[in-house]
Design brief:
281 residues; mainly alpha; 0% strand; globular
């Protein structure tokens, strides 16, 4: 299986989700349904763009991964399987998702995405004989690099945008949502305990805002230089923590990111649910 064929099939598998999202938008015509159209459209546009950049992707295999290039068909099959799983998830999301349970689908999307990367990593490790850690890390880098190529970005540029800027922004948004939840329950019933909770929520968001500003200020430079700076800092952390560079990446850009983001979302949802029950009673 060639890379162009696998990308073309992946793009075709995403069409049902895109069509379903457009249909839902015309039925409901709200911001939520428009967001679903935007997500499906972005995924479809990425795959189509990747199709037209397939030759460049193969040249990168030739340049940086001679051992991987010989196992092209296995990697393409694994990547296609992952895209089909993601397409099915998006189609089910568009057809079934309820606004009141968005956080459950966000959690499920994170889990499914990691599962897809793990499957691709297992396929790479089995095909090339490397360890699962090396295969999984190669799959993560491959997904980032392929997405970057599809949008005309280098691997370094997409890593800085995705792993630093976007993850910091998503963590901040989740914290702001948690603070909004504390403000909302205080406005429903102005008690001392709820006022203290709102104050803690505001301080919590201020910590995230300061952290967000420090991250952006620290990496306020050309993307290529920001990547090199981050790479050297992760190497230093790996030496200080007596672990590997790969493990530091997992701990910061996967584990820490998921714990902070999902923790904020779950706590905010819990507060709003408790507040709603008390209001009804």
């Amino acid at each position: 299986m060639s890379i162009t064929t696998s990308i073309l099939l992946a793009a075709a598998s995403m069409l049902p989700a895109l069509i379903a999202s457009v249909g839902r938008y015309f039925r409901e015509k709200d911001l939520f349904s428009f967001t679903l159209v935007f997500l499906c459209g972005m995924l479809e546009a990425t795959l189509i763009s990747a199709f037209f950049h397939a030759d460049y992707m193969m040249s990168l295999f030739d340049k940086y991964g001679q051992s991987i290039h010989s196992y092209q068909k296995y990697i393409c099959f694994a990547s296609l399987s992952g895209c089909i799983i993601l397409s099915l998830m998006m189609f089910a999301t568009v057809r079934i998702i309820d606004k009141q349970h968005v956080w459950k689908w966000i959690l499920g999307a994170f889990t499914l995405f990691l599962l897809v990367i793990m499957l691709i990593g297992i396929a790479i490790s089995m095909a090339t004989g490397c360890s699962f850690d090396q295969g999984f890390f190669a799959a993560c880098c491959g997904v980032m690099g392929a997405g970057g190529v599809a949008w005309g970005l280098t691997y370094k540029e997409i890593c800085v945008i995705g792993n630093i800027y976007m993850e910091a922004g998503i963590c901040l948004l989740s914290a702001l949502w948690l603070t909004w939840a504390t403000i909302k329950i205080f406005r429903q019933r102005r008690t001392v305990s709820r006022g203290l909770l709102m104050s803690v929520g505001i301080l919590y968001s201020l910590v995230y805002l300061i952290g967000f500003w420090m991250i952006y200020r620290h990496y306020a430079m050309p993307l290529e230089k920001a990547f090199d700076l981050c790479y050297h800092e992760l190497i230093v952390l790996a030496l200080d923590w007596h672990t590997t560079y790969n493990n530091v990446n997992y701990m910061i850009f996967i584990l820490l990111f998921l714990v902070l983001t999902i923790g904020n979302i779950l706590f905010a949802s819990r507060l709003l649910r408790i507040s709603y029950k008390k209001t009804v009673n």
